[in-house]
Design a protein that fits this description.
The chain is mainly β and 655 residues long. Helix content is 14%, strand content 40%. It is built from eleven helices and 40 strands. The strands form seven sheets. The protein has a 19-stranded antiparallel sheet that branches.
């Protein structure tokens, strides 16, 4: 596969000392980057003349005391313009990804480079070292001095009694405060969004995170600074239902790595509300596909039973982790067009993937699923998978498994980041897709390893079983913040739906806050090439028309457009798969009436199928309406969104 590159290097590569400070504009001229190379290296960013990021220091300190970026001697610079197109092997937002940017490369005599890129939708920079042998990095200075005291949307790490502050599942609610009111002691994980009173939003995150710790953020005066987990020197296994390795002692450095390499991009995604949910800047910055032919990567929809605790009814068997139950799930998947079912935690001993629960006859279940054209997928505990990696994957391959989940990493220090790469590569050798739970954000990993098809790193549906955290307002922050960093496994589809007053967290009879339409819309609005249905199949069987509509929704798209958006309030997303458009809308607790224009359609007539909030959805959020009619691109579609509401439209061209 080849991409077309057009390099405009001022007619030829031009090496000369840049003006001080050096400036670089985005292709459309709206964003301007300024880089100072005096005693310190600092960058700043403005949008249409409005300061967004004021001078912010960049440096990297090695264990031997060298400080790359302080009193650095600039040797030469290169400016280039790139006009590129990326063909995505797994089309999450779009099949053809436009990759246009201007780039500034600064080379220093201390044998390191700084690479800056300015896109129409953001700015990024990274270190590149050209040092012999291996190096030890004591720390990296990544500062983001934000102009005009913006409001910060940030997920704070919650302290754990048994672990240090760098252990987290990366699943928290967003706190919303002016920057100067964020406590200095707060550590948050990225992405973080900064919203000034005027001008565009700024999402701070990273890309191409390989063999290096992930970036946390903490307030630093009028901005944020990167914080990196020190290298683990000692660990212990912490017990409980899901044992995991906890760091008990850390080094005074953050990474040991090759002396010649590139480092993760520090990324500022910049745009208005309508720009952020469709952003693929993090994807564009990542290392291209390392796996070669990935035609065996098969996106689709999957069932899961963990959230509802296999609480089936209207079945002639005792529901649980047993063969009869999973045959029922296979039949359900076949009936409504799901590609695979997931056997979540409990199918084996969490500490031994070969110690299968006696009530479960896996060979019999595999044969049954194969006959129905449905695949099996399996949950694993990360510590166990790591210990049994090759024999476990060999068994999954023999079983015909093409998708597994691993869970409870809860760290992003350098060895844990290496774990993701090691597991993705091992799975790829056997043509198995992998989903990470208890995981940090993707940070472009899904481009480098397309079989790492989705991951958690999000407070999603499961929290309805024990908390009130997964509110419609929370759901309306995720596409503007977390989803900017890559696909996320929220696991929508709960069929017990409640108002804020009605909602109760009840294990086994899990309900969601908001309407049925809200749950359905997540399948369209949220990026995840494998979408997991978390509802109760016994309930679903009572509503075949709704489930048939849900079952026909794709999970990859040739094109994505944002029709309307307001951070935390509402989002309307239109996506095209082949000739069919799907429009999903999510709403917060405020009822709204919208009119949708269809001018993104081509000429001709279309069949419109809608699933919208019903007239009583404000009192009984289970209420929805399914309708079908003919339309054309000149029509306007009125849509009522109930409190916590949502809708999905399917628009098919008539033949």
């Amino acid at each position: 596969m080849r991409s077309l590159y057009l390099f405009l290097l001022l007619s030829a590569p031009t090496w000369a000392a840049p003006p001080r400070p050096a400036t670089l504009a985005s292709p459309n001229g709206q964003l301007t980057l300024m880089v100072e190379t005096t005693d310190r290296i600092r960058f700043s960013v403005s949008y249409a003349g409005q300061p967004l990021v004021e001078p912010s220091a960049i440096s990297m300190t090695l264990a031997d005391g060298r400080q790359l970026g302080r009193r650095a001697a600039l040797r030469r610079s290169q400016v280039r313009t790139v006009r590129d197109s990326i063909i995505a092997p797994v089309a999450i937002k779009r099949r053809l990804v436009r990759d246009h940017y201007n780039e500034l490369i600064l080379q220093f005599r201390e044998k390191f480079d700084l690479i800056f890129r300015v896109y129409d939708d953001g700015v990024a920079y990274r270190f590149r070292t050209v040092l012999p042998d291996s190096i030890t990095i004591r720390d990296e200075e990544a500062r983001f001095t934000l102009a005009n005291n913006p409001t910060l949307y940030y997920p704070p790490v919650q302290p754990r009694r048994e672990a240090d502050r760098f252990h987290t599942s990366f699943e928290e609610l967003y706190q919303i405060r002016p920057l100067d009111q964020v406590p200095d002691s707060t550590l948050c994980f990225s992405p973080v969004l900064a919203a000034a009173a005027t001008g565009p939003r700024v999402v701070i995150t990273e890309s191409d995170l390989l063999d290096y710790p992930g970036m946390f953020l903490a307030r630093d005066g009028t901005g944020l600074r990167g914080v990196f987990a020190p290298y683990p020197m000692a660990e212990k296994m912490v017990g409980g239902d899901y044992p995991q390795a906890v760091v008990t002692r850390r080094a005074d450095y953050i990474a040991r790595t090759a002396g010649t390499r590139t480092f993760p991009w520090r990324v500022l995604v910049i745009g208005q509300d309508r720009d952020l949910p469709a952003s693929d800047l993090v994807y564009r910055l990542a290392t291209p596909n390392r796996l070669g032919d990935v035609s065996w990567v098969r996106p689709g929809k999957c069932t899961d039973e963990w959230i509802t605790d296999i609480n089936l009814f209207n079945v002639p068997f005792r529901a649980g982790v047993n063969t009869a139950t999973y045959k029922f799930y296979v039949d359900f998947a076949k009936r409504f067009g799901f590609d695979r079912i997931l056997l979540d935690a409990g199918w084996s001993d969490v500490n031994d993937l070969f110690k299968i629960k006696p009530e479960l006859n896996v060979p019999e279940l595999i044969a049954y699923a194969r006959e129905k054209g449905v695949r099996l997928s399996f949950w694993t505990l990360a510590a166990t998978l790591d210990r049994q990696l090759e024999p476990a994957l060999a068994q999954f391959e023999r079983w015909g498994v093409d998708f597994i989940m691993t869970d409870f990493m809860d760290r992003d220090d350098q060895p844990m980041v290496r774990f993701y790469q090691r597991v993705a590569e091992a799975c790829a050798r056997r043509k198995i897709m992998i989903m990470f739970h208890g995981a940090f954000k993707p940070a472009g990993f899904d481009r480098t390893y397309p079989n790492a098809i989705t991951r958690e790193g999000v407070l999603g549906s499961e929290y309805n079983a024990w908390s009130r955290k997964a509110t419609p307002e929370h759901d309306l922050l995720l596409p503007f913040i977390r989803m900017v960093a890559g696909p996320m496994d929220y696991e929508p589809g709960l069929l017990e739906n409640a108002t804020a007053k009605q909602f109760q967290p009840i294990p086994g009879k899990v309900m969601s806050q908001g309407t049925r339409g809200h749950q359905l819309a997540m399948f369209v609005v949220y990026d995840s090439p494998i979408q997991i249905f978390s509802g109760n199949p016994s309930q679903a069987m009572l509503e075949p028309a709704f489930m048939e509509f849900l079952g026909q929704l794709p999970t990859t798209y040739d094109e994505t457009r944002i029709l309307a958006a307001k951070l935390g309030d509402y989002l309307i997303t239109a996506r095209r798969n082949s000739d069919t458009w799907y429009v999903g809308g999510l709403n917060d607790w405020t009822a709204r009436d919208l009119s949708l224009r269809l001018d993104f359609l081509g000429p001709g007539t279309y069949t419109l199928t809608t699933c919208t909030d019903g007239p009583n959805a404000d009192r009984n959020p289970v209420d929805y309406q399914l309708t079908t009619r003919s339309i054309s691109r000149t029509d306007t579609i009125p849509v009522h969104l109930a409190p916590g509401g949502g809708f999905v439209l399917r628009i098919e061209r008539k033949r």
